[in-house]
Amino acid sequence: MWVRRLELIDVRSYEHLVLELEPGVTVLVGANGQGKTNLVEALQRVATGASHRVASDAALVRIGAEHGIVRVAAIDDDGRERTVDLELGGGRRARPRVDGHPVRRTSESVGVVPVVLFAPEDVAIVRGDPSERRRFLDDVLAQRRSTFASARSDYDQVLRQRNALLKAQRGGDASEDELTSWTELLIAHGAPIVAARIAAVAALSGPFAAAHLALVGRDDGVVLEYASTLGTFVTDVGAVPPTGPIAAAMRDALMAVAGEERRRAITLVGPHRDDVAISLAGMPARTTASQGEAWSLALALRIASAALLADVGRRPVAILDDVFSELDADRRERVAALCEGFDQVLVTAAVDADVPLAGHRIDVHLRDGVTDLVPREEDR
């Protein structure tokens, strides 16, 4: 897949931008703070349903504007044009339109234009809290199947309600029957999420190891495993395990911690507490990997996720946001070689010479608070 046209209206530092793109490599070149990341952030917001930098869409709207608009037109793997229009801010939920038609839930627009974003912040996937790794995995699954985003949203709503009931019960304002009902709902929504994640990790493991080998040039014994609060569930690569045993394990685990949950007024078991364990040479990468090792592991995970998306006929657009400046010359060449597997690669860089990729160049300038894009003379 490749993005043919990107339009931004009142998004971050963009007042009104219409950017026509081609397959292959496009490099956005400009000093820090000019608005390069703002552009790729908008594309990632359309693809995954969330920004990689902020939690709220309000921050994406240009200062002084009531709302922002992102419009994307892309050509899919079958040569068909797909469009996503997204209105942000204005005190309302994001209202997407897919192929010109409104959709009921934002999650239905996720994955229509799949992307894999590489950014310096990705080190947090390896060295950060479990929430960072859950988010990485859930973003991939949501782009792979839009129904996963809806399932995760439903689970989060049930979780919030159950936590509220635990707090109310501590004050005597909620019945045991009511809590039992929400517990069963939590299990019903949580088991399929755990099953999908287990299958995804199994499918990612091979491509992850292969990508890491290609990046570092040696076998460091990298291993990816799903660490569930419910125990271990083995599955064949790509096969989703049955939800029955997972639901039973979740029910048993919740019963075992019932007293502690009441004391702390919080749900202690479920996919919201799980982790993706990454090990390097038999040691946990989170605590033992150096900055360079963590960066290579994060890049390998992103590359592996592209294989998982392509497996269901959704070859993603690759976005490299200020990645090459973080790498030495040898690693830059290795990353550039891996980019050849994508139909389209969008790169942001402060220094053009850091990017060992041939392709279109666009200069990015911020003037009076508004970003302007100027294609190089040879690309006009």
Question: What does this 3D model show about the protein?
Answer:
There is one protein chain. The protein is an alpha/beta fold. The chain is 41% helix and 24% strand. It has ten helices and 15 strands. A six-stranded antiparallel β-sheet has the order 2-1-4-5-6-7, with helices on one face. Helix 4 crosses helix 7. The longest helix has 41 residues, at 176-216. It is globular and about 70 Å long. The mean pLDDT is 91.
Question: What are the salient characteristics of this protein?
Answer:
single chain, 380 residues, six-stranded mixed sheet, 10 helices, 15 strands, globular
Quick gist of this model?
This protein is α/β, with parallel strands linked by helices.
Q: Beta-sheet strand percentage?
A: 15-25%
Please write the string of helix (H) and strand (E) elements. EEEHEEEEEHHHHEHHEEHHEHEEE
The pLDDT mean sits at 91
Taking pLDDT < 50 over at least 5 consecutive residues as the criterion, the unreliable ranges are none
For the biggest β-sheet, the strand order reads 2-1-4-5-6-7
Helical amount: 40-55%
Judged by helices, strands and strand pairing, the structural class is alpha/beta
Could you give the distance between the termini?
23 Å
Largest sheet: 6 strands, antiparallel
Radius of gyration: 22 Å
Number of helical stretches of at least 4 residues? 10
Number of β-strand runs: 15
Dominant shape: globular
